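anyone else get weird line breaks when pasting these?? whatever heres mine. first is seq + tokens for prot A
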Amino acid sequence: MNRISSRLSSFLPPADLRRPALLGAGLLVASWAFISFTPVFSTWLFGDARYYESWGGWIAGHQVPYRDFNIEYPPGALPTFVAPVYLRKLFFYHGRYFFWLRFEILVFSLVALAVMVLVLKRLGVSRRRAYAVCITAGVAPAVLGPISYFHFDYFPAVFAVAAVAALLYERGVLACALAAAGATVKVYPVLLIPLALIELWRRGGARAVAKGVGAAAAVLAAVLGPFAIVAPHGLTWALHVETARALEVESVGASFFAFAHALFGVHLHIVLTSGGSHGIAGPGARTVSALLAVAMVAALAAAYVRYFLRARGPEDLVAAAAAVVVVYIVFSKVFSPQYLVWLIPLVLLIGGRRGLRASALLIVILAVTQIFEPYNYVHYFRMSTPWVAYVVFFRNLLVVGLLGLLVWPRPLEQHAQQLDPARTTGFG
């Protein structure tokens, strides 16, 4: 019994982190309640949740996704759609589906915060830094607004930050499995697997790398395999929908077209894409999409090589994990506003002056996004209100600036000890 309790206590935050963790959790609940029950926000808490309600009801009615109905998300996302249906039944049909979806998202955000605290524990941060991280994580969803609570993006974010935590605790194989699990919900956590493989190579060579690859493959097979057998055409359709989408209007590439349209009257061909979003069609947009794809591959490769050659400490790992996700967002042809939720558990963990600047910039990005999402999105995709296009363009420039802040070659925080003298410098 003592051995079990000692193992459990090893995963609990030390006493000096418990108060920051509880404060952050309280702020998360307060942010959730503020957005959920304040009329000016609550009227916007639907969006894609209407699709989730339909899919969840069909699944609860024993229809098979990808076979009996089309769905564009990977199979790992399916539990998030059906869970609110059963939660509502469990509580005697009290409340609507949308309330229980928001409750589910609140739980995910609290789990993400708990994992962030585990990372802070491993980094050996000061109490001041712990308070700053937890407070910012607690208010960040309110700064982003309703978008935070009618999308399920906190769910893959849990897997992503858990993979980083597993790496910091020298569990590289587990990190690969967690990143793969996150990739079955939304693709982006797969970007963390190369970082895990680099760490496995450093610690155990080719055999350790093989174990990591095997763990990731096993998770992907376990989640995707049954649907590949039962409904291969449905999975193929979902893959085709995602890869064939037009340049989404809020993406970094598209915002340049929108800016040119607002400023110079350049003609744009706006089309409705999957999931009710809108994209820019035409030869120019297709060319930009192709260039962005090439740039993404090059930028990711550069980030991994730089990490392999230069990174050694846990702070480097946290910064690299955040950087590769920002690379994905900047160079993707789709940039839905809820993608910013992915950055909250990662960017806020970065230490030193760079982390302070990155966290402040992220909060500004969240706030600027709420100016046009969801309240003015209709004016944006119709390109009828120039100031909205300027705001989107400015927001995307800030995201590019965040990427530059994270990847700009410089010594890792020469003054970090001044800001956080308790931080550690190695994995051991």
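and prot B, same format (seq, then tokens)
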Amino acid sequence: MTNKRPSPKINADTKAFWEGCREHELRLQKCGDCGHLRHPPAFICPRCLSIRTFLVKASGRGRVYSYAVYHVAFDPSFQGDLPYVVALVVLKEGPRILTNIVGCDPAAVSCEMDVEVVWDDREEGISLPKFRPINSNHNEVRK
């Protein structure tokens, strides 16, 4: 029996975001009235309640705002990844995204660390945005 990893639940609000991820683009919603950039995607703007929205491509760069190193797997399918890092990354454009930090030793992760998006392409046609350190002075993953 294989441990299948959980997949994002795609709905009308998040469909365009996940389609962008499949094309290796981070797409953010921008309010057509007040200009507020937002993530996660939503039907209405949380600032002005407008339903007018369009998508903009994000740079894929940001900084770690906060993080946790998991030593116990959230789901049994992540057991082989321990320890792993779950982080809140502030994108250069302003919105925050919950993600994983990859490409460095979990002990090297720190708040304010500059990161860039990398893509975890899954078999079921989903690409997950994850982030790795931009600076080369962080230790590589031990694999």
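btw re prot B: The longest helix spans residues 15-22. The longest strand covers residues 61-70.
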